[in-house]
Amino acid sequence: MTPQPDYHAMLQIALAEARQGLAEGGIPIGAALFDSDGNLLGSGHNRRVQEDDPSVHGETDAFRKAGRQRGYRDKIMVTTLAPCWYCSGLVRQFKIGTVVVGESVNFAGGVDWLRENGVNVIDLHSPECIQLLADYIAAHPEIWNEDIGEV
Asked: Which pLDDT tens digit goes with each residue over 33-45?
């Protein structure tokens, strides 16, 4: 039997990306795509503010940086925040099998929908992820609301 990857260690890569995004003046959401053995394929962070591009979310950035894969059912998307509907659609479109979520307290996104459609969603309820985004939302509510389409 193959051992389960260390989801908490994988989350640390996404958290490093989130912190980098924050240091760049952006929204602190990071993500990483791994294979089933836990090997990193690509990582990225939300770059909406930095690149003035509303489509560069953490998950899409990591997905693009991972490059083409032969299939995605055995891939693991790790993200500091529950994926929004846009990123949930990416997961469903490419049939990514597992999504590891750092937190879903500040934003639940499409977590329930993903589960209802057979995606294995693991919510780590990371206090660090929760606090990082809560602090950002409190300091920049207008940017956060724009990011989730609430303007």
From this structure: 999 999 999 999 9
